[in-house]
Amino acid sequence: MKLHNLPKDLLFNIGKHLDVLYLYNLCQTNKRLYEKLYGNEDIWYYKTHEQFSTSFDDDEYFTIENFGTNKKIFFFLFRLHKLKEIFSASNLRCQDKKRIKSLDFTKFYFIGWVSISYSNFKNIPRDIYLLSYLQQLLLVGDGIKHIPREICFLKNLKVLDLSNNHITIIPKEIGLLQNLEELNLHNNLIENIPEELCQLEKLQQLFLAENRISHIPREIGNLINLRILILFSNNLLNLPIEINKLKKLRHFNVEYNNISNLHEINLFQTEYNKYSLN
After folding, report:
1. CA 188 – CA 209 distance, rounded (Å)
2. How far apart are CA 278 and CA 270, in angstroms?
3. Fewer CB in a 10 Å sphere around the end CB: N or C, the chain?
4. Whole-number Å distance between alpha carbons of 110 and 199
5. What percent of the chain has pLDDT over 70?
């Protein structure tokens, strides 16, 4: 008898004990088997509760159930578990991994801040977006070269510090972090500031010193709540006059550039503001 013709209860007993990857590969070449086995919601309900549900209180699991089908819930929790393993890996040389490792599965999902610095972390996991309650993410001096687009799903993020890395590009999706108040990309290899960054209306502190930036977009004037703007040691030749719109700016540093139009910037008229120029 072909596997897809087996009784439903027998297929269930087979599926619930199979490794996820093996189960997926087994069903790829047979549409009916895919529907009856891989698409069997009872199997995913069993796997979810067998592996994960004991870590959640009733009200917390209710939050998880809102993600949809049992299969979607399982893979959400599966990826979350892998993410926790990455952030608490033994090769990370930092104190915060101990804190993360000590958290139970549930508390990790609701974590508010992560700080892994000078630990050769190298890559930001794409599944970082699973930590939807995250408010502060500090990955300093970790050799990171790339900011994944998925970071834009961290809707509650207020502080993002990726200073002292090897990042070359700020993704346009950064403009979707509408609650971001502090962005620190000091000492990277960045050449351009995307216009989308200037959509961060709540941004108060922006650190972009010691990069390779040669141009600041005119849209910088949209950052109406900006109080600190640090741009020293870049390749700037001029500043957009729209910087004059930044009425809340209190600390502005553009030292060690070759800016030719400082006379067009009238921010420097207020006594209690601190400005460091060429």
Report:
1. 8
2. 18
3. N
4. 27
5. 88
The single-letter code of the amino acid at 163 is S
Which fold is adopted by the domain 112-276?
3.80.10
What stretch of H or E contains 65? helix 58-65
pLDDT in tens, 230-266: 999 999 999 999 999 999 999 999 999 999 999 898 8
Domains in the chain: boundaries: 3-77, 112-276
Q: Are 218 and 197 in contact (CB under 8 A)?
A: no
Question: CA Rg, the chain, in Å?
Answer: 24
Are 246 and 223 in contact by the 8 Å Cβ rule? The answer is yes
Least confident of 6-20, 116-130, 198-212: 6-20
Q: Using CA atoms, how far apart are residues 148 and 160, in angstroms rounded to an integer?
A: 13
SS3 of 30-63:
CHHHHHHHHCCHHHHHHHHHHHCHHHCCHHHHHH
Q: Which residues on adjacent β-strands are paired with residue 183?
A: 160, 206
Q: What is the dihedral of CA 150, 153, 176, 111, to 10 degrees?
A: -120
Measured over the CA atoms of residue 196, residue 143, residue 161 and residue 274, the dihedral's sign is negative
SS (H, E, C) 216-244: CCHHHHHCCCCCEEECCCCCCCCCCHHHH
How far apart are the C-alpha atoms of 244 and 278, rounded to whole Å? 18
Measuring CA to CA, how many Å separate 243 from each of 195, 199, 227, 238, 272?
14, 15, 12, 11, 18
